[in-house]
Amino acid sequence: MSLQTAPAGVQGGGVAIALNEAGKDFETAEGLVRALTPTNFSVREGEFTVLLGPSGCGKTTMLRMIAGLEAPTSGTIEVEGRNLWTADKRDNVALAEMGMVFQEANLFPWLSIEDNIALPLKLRGVGKSERRQRARELCKLVGITGFEKRYPKELSGGMRQRASIARALSYDPKILLMDEPFGALDAITRDAMNIELQRIWMETNKTIVLVTHSISEAVFLADRIALLSPRPGRIQEIVEVPFARPRAVSVNEDPQFQHIANHLRDRLEH
Amino acid sequence: MSLDTPIVSTVAPQQPAKKRKKEIPTWIGSVALLVLFLGGWEFYVREFNVSKLILPAPSLVIEAWYASLWLPSTWYHTWITALETMLGFFFAMVFGVALGAMLGKSPRLEKMLNPFIVATQVVPKVALVPLFVVWFGFGITSKVVIAAVLAFFPIMLNTALGVKSVERGYREVLASLNASRLQKITQLEFPSALPYILTGMEMGVVLSIIGAVVGEYLGGSEGLGNLAVKEMNSYNTTALFAVIMHLSALGFVFYAIVVGLRRFLIPWHESAQIKK
């Protein structure tokens, strides 16, 4: 199997994440709001999954439940074979298998880029020289070598987001979760970041779950797209995206790309 | 033809590269204002023969101040006032930061204590000075207490505000990394609140000096505040002005130290950037 025909992500086919009737209701002043109806969904090891949908469709809620930031109100979530939520308590071993990237880079302004990237290692008690070493490797991986000693405010939005990806990868989790990571960037930077993310994913063999509301971003990046719709939030359809890796930006001229994108657009409008 | 003209005229005319006009530094302006003020004062006193008892000429004040610098007693009183200020400020820091952090972390505690905080805020605390003298005597203890009480409130309130203002996104990062309670404090809440704490300290250190001096006015026999009262009672207005000048210099030193801490402790923060 060559890289041309085999997507780097598809491997043994083990299950990385499994939602079993996992759902979330919020209590508000107007009563119970169903953010995500009880959902069954699984993500394979090494797969690039995109959760696509308009605002209020529950895609971010779904990701935050997987990330251990919000407890589901029904059902269970398994991560690498472990039950993530027992009542409202998180399983910390399962949590350590995941790295989270937010829409904002959320780098701490008082830490240099290398200290930001290695912060998770510091929390785990890793020594300073090892942290520096690892930060340097990660800067290389995400393409910000030379900026290790700089402070976040000295970097552009795209570079900051690269650093936040490096931070999420610092403790080598198997799974990378991304909540509209490029939503705050301009269109040109966004295209470049999509290419970079694909490269990082192929180099590291991570399982990635990414939330977006951009159809073209979803089709470009995903092995599989879960299309969600609102009121109540639910998975409407799952779409396989068959293009070979690595994909170039020009893949969007492919008639099949247009076909998938049009289909998703139709479904989003109804 | 006439249509072409405006287009041509928009092309930048060939000008010799203009040298960036060198601006006069603002500190020269500040010094000029000071000289003008002192000059006006001197002129007024000399021209209108104002009594030394009412307003001594600045030249006399500076002379008296300079002479006082050679007297050991000046430095003894300076040391007493500085000690009271530092001790008071120290206790204000310890209690202010601790209580402020607790209030910032617990909205319930803050709600519960809020009426009392507002009440103690609106009480003119200087009015309590005689009471502190009654309770703690004429020694430095009463002055330390006054200095601490005055500096405590801005430090506490700013610390609470700082802890409350920690960005949600940063908290989520630590939540997703499963950070412990202690790690959240040391890695996020403390560094994030530090600019606020420093603002509280800047306000607090000035109030500490005021507290110490007011305490000295009212009781005891030591310190620059007491020295000022003695000079006033002996109608030596020139010496009184010299003491005020000396106190201002002491206040400036303390304030400069705290402001300097900002550049040293939080170089990453906007407030510590050197404006160009």
Question: Could you characterize the architecture of this molecule?
Answer:
The complex is a heterodimer of chains A (270) and B (276). Chain A has nine helices and twelve strands. With 270 residues, chain A is α/β, with parallel strands linked by helices. Chain A has two domains: 15-97 and 173-269, Rossmann fold, CATH 3.40.50; 107-172. In chain A, helix 7 (187-204) links the parallel strand 9 and strand 10 (207-212). In chain A, helix 5 packs across helix 6. The longest helix of chain A is centred in the last third of the chain and has 18 residues, at 187-204. Chain B is an all-alpha fold and 276 residues long. Chain B has a single domain (60-272), classed as Orthogonal Bundle (MetI-like fold). Chain B has eleven helices and no strands. The radius of gyration of chain B is 27 Å and the shape is globular. In chain B, 31% of the residues are buried. Mean pLDDT of chain B is 88; it is low at 1-13. Classes of the chains: A alpha/beta (270), B mainly alpha (276). Chain A binds chain B through residues 67-69, 90, 92, 95-96, 98-100, 102, 104, 106, 108-110, 119-120, 122-123, 151, 153, and chain B through 167, 169-170, 172-180, 183, 187-188, 191-192, 194, 266, 268-269.
Which SSEs are present, and which pair or pack?
The complex is a heterodimer of chains A (about 270) and B (about 280).
Chain A: E1 15-28, E2 31-44, E3 48-52, H1 59-66, E4 74-79, E5 82-83, E6 85-86, E7 89-90, H2 92-95, E8 98-101, H3 113-117, H4 119-123, H5 128-142, H6 157-169, E9 175-179, H7 187-204, E10 207-212, H8 215-221, E11 224-229, E12 234-240, H9 255-269
Parallel strand pairs in A: 3-10, 3-11, 8-9, 9-10
Antiparallel strand pairs in A: 1-2, 1-4, 4-5, 6-7, 11-12
Helix pairs in contact in A: 5-6, 8-9
Chain B: H1 4-10, H2 26-47, H3 58-68, H4 72-105, H5 107-122, H6 129-136, H7 140-164, H8 168-176, H9 181-218, H10 224-233, H11 237-265
Helix pairs in contact in B: 3-11, 4-5, 4-7, 4-9, 4-10, 6-7, 7-9, 9-10, 9-11, 10-11
